[in-house]
Amino acid sequence: MAYGQGYSSSENQSRFDRNSSYNQNGGSRYNNEKSGNGFSHNDRRGGDSSYRGGSSGGGGFRGGRDNSRGFNSNNGGGFGQRGGSGFNGGGRNYDNDRFAQLEAPTWNLDELPAFEKNFYVEHPNVAARSETHIKEFRDKHEMTCFGPDIPRPVETFEEANFPNYVLSEIRKLGFEKPTSIQSQGWPMALSGRDMVGVAQTGSGKTLAYSLPSIVHINAQPLLQPGDGPIVLILAPTRELAVQIQTECTKYGRSSRIRNTCVYGGAPKGPQIRDLTRGVEICIATPGRLLDMLDAGKTNLRRVTYLVLDEADRMLDMGFEPQIRKIVDQIRPDRQTLMWSATWPKEVEALARDYLKDFIQINIGSLSLSANHKIDQIIEVCTDFDKQGKLVKHLEQYLGSEQHKTIIFSATKRTADSITRFLRQDGWPALAIHGDKAQNERDWVLDQFRSGKSNIMVATDVASRGIDVKDVRYVINYDFPTNIEDYVHRIGRTGRGGSSGTSITYFTQENQRQAKELVSILKEANQNIPQELSDMTYNSRGGGGKLF
């Protein structure tokens, strides 16, 4: 039965048996869990064959694409499809007229099936805390909240009142307590409100929205043939989308929630097959998703939980027209969650256009700032000095240790040159940039993540959305073109509460950014070299060259 035509009593049954009502005897909304596997008799998906993950591709970075057919397969493929500024297709040169025929539906809320989105029941421990305690907790964790009737933060996983099928997955991984964004973000997301979360990368944002999404899905009617996803997560890059998929797969496993990852630079066939079979969660980059919508391979009529992850990066990459086109395809009474590392006016404008009466949580300052757990070292030098300094720093900080290190360069040519030089010198370096084929980029990332090669040389575009744990050092061989990218680069280390070190080579050609860099260093209580301070004076018009 097509969505929008109503459901029979059995079709309107949620994924979990609804014989137990929500809030029964004042209890949790999750009292409707059923013993055993928890699935009602009309779950049509049946056997395990629907859930087979793909096996890995062939050996080496030219090992060919993965020919498995599981919903979680990662297929190799060509590089870019659209030729825009982003390596996942789309970007600033995107041809928006291409999707002019994809018209926004005319929504009549009175005719749309109702859906459940408020699942939050405040834990007694949370309710018992004084306003003074709540304020002290928020101040301690640098939380700033905006909006009416904001739920109180939780301090443990149990206080979030997640159902057992979610809590069991959390316990398996041995997490001690929620991160700051999770403590406040979970009650906000579970309450069904539109919300904005602003926090640094690596702060735990993915779990802040993915766990509530699983609860949301399990309260909705089962997918019917021809239905699109219930949860849509938009991300700026293929790498980030795949990382989100990994988390969704991990925590949705016990509920047998299916997902797919839709991105450019990979064959469309497996992605179309997943969408046709039906998935509860679709993680997508904007350009490839518009391809699928335009070709009629999926629809967004069932989407009631929309996530815009790294919204600031998506706008930086020129995806705003595509985002607006996509959001217009979704029913207006959906729940929308926007996540961003910064809060520029462009992101704020998008939020005001598409979020209704939203509440907001900021972790840390809204002004651009670096993670205080990162030791920032600035070396003022010439371009000629960089190579020697790089070897010196690798010997000083790595030595015989196998700490993961990312080296950032301004161009693809420089990335290849650095990699070649380091490999000739005996360092296990690999490069990742836009000219590399997708399967080669995948191989490089796998080698880096596994520690088989602990040095990765990258450009900014190729590194966007990459989240690798245990990166100890970041070296800015070339300073980026803007201070935002500097903060984003060094944020690859110091994640999850750990410490890290960044080393930056700053030349006379970077002088225009000296003042902004000094501001970032001061805010984080870092050492400021005298040569860099002199540059801030010179950039205001005084003095001459340093070199």
Automatic annotation (TrEMBL):
GO terms for cellular component: nucleus. A motif (Q motif) lies at residues 155-183. Residues 1-40 have a biased composition (Polar residues). GO terms for biological process: nuclear polyadenylation-dependent mRNA catabolic process; nuclear-transcribed mRNA catabolic process, nonsense-mediated decay; rRNA processing; termination of RNA polymerase II transcription. Pfam families: DEAD (PF00270), Helicase_C (PF00271). GO terms for molecular function: ATP binding; G-quadruplex DNA binding; G-quadruplex RNA binding; hydrolase activity; mRNA binding; RNA helicase activity; snoRNA binding. InterPro entries: DEAD/DEAH_box_helicase_dom, Helicase_ATP-bd, Helicase_C-like, P-loop_NTPase, RNA-helicase_DEAD-box_CS, RNA_helicase_DEAD_Q_motif. It is found in: Nucleus. This is RNA helicase.
